Amino acid sequence: MKWSRAKADTILVHLVLVLIGVVFVIPLLWMIFAAFDGNATLALQVPQHWTLGNFWAILSDPANQRSFVNGVIISLGQSVLVVIVAGLAAYPLSRYQLKYKRPFMYTILFSTSLPITAVMVPVYELFVFLHITDSIFWTTLFLAASGLPYAIWIMKNFMDSVPIELEEAAWTDGASAFSSLRKIVAPLMLPGISTVGIFTFAGSWGNFFVPFILIQTPSKLPASVTIFQFFGQYGSVEYGKLAAFSILYTIPAVVLYVLGQRYMSTGFQFGGATKG
């Protein structure tokens, strides 16, 4: 009786997992089929005539090209700024005994749980007051600032696992703190740096809300916002182009994950990732 119940529980769990898998696979299949269908609809169907026309329409449109470039500029700029600033901020938190270190770390931890939507109204008012709305540069800076709490917390934990004895040996040879950080700590923290950089880029690449609020000029909008151009008036949607745009839109993040998978897997297994 116990064996039968255990077997029934196992079958039930597998059925639930299969159902969840189907729920995720169906939209992906629709996106692939619709992207190659010249007469795509909302229904999931295999194209009768496969075509690359939707992809050509997306790639040949200067507005779409510009939106992808804007997205790369914002995402890459945010990633670089976050990695550099978070590394510099995490170093003293990891290496020095500061008086208010613990409260500061708790503040950072609390900041990571604060949703971006909760601060967008005052942020928008600040941007309007300073006359810096509709700017890719200032939008990138705000995104970088919003990503710093998470990055500092992760960087600090990774940095804790780098033996300080290596730096002490370098200091004995006359190296400065910045030189030891750049030549000793940073190379050993490459898995952590890659993890923070990839997650920051992916989060910025898929961010719709912040650019939509802070940028008004259509030519400055990233791809995460311009994807809504395929939703026309009176409920009409260009499903084929929407699917093709979606596939092209996912390529940078997927490629980045594939290229950085080795560093990310090492990073998650790094001792510092689990230290407090």
TrEMBL record:
GO cellular component: plasma membrane
Keyword Cell membrane appears in the UniProt entry: yes
Pfam families tied to this protein: BPD_transp_1 (PF00528)
Membrane topology of this protein: Multi-pass membrane protein
Record flagged with keyword Transmembrane helix: yes
Stored SUPFAM superfamilies: MetI-like (SSF161098)
Main location: membrane
Transmembrane portions of the chain: 12-36, 68-91, 103-124, 136-155, 188-215, 242-260
The protein's name in its UniProt record: Carbohydrate ABC transporter membrane protein 2 (CUT1 family)
Natural source organism: Alicyclobacillus sacchari
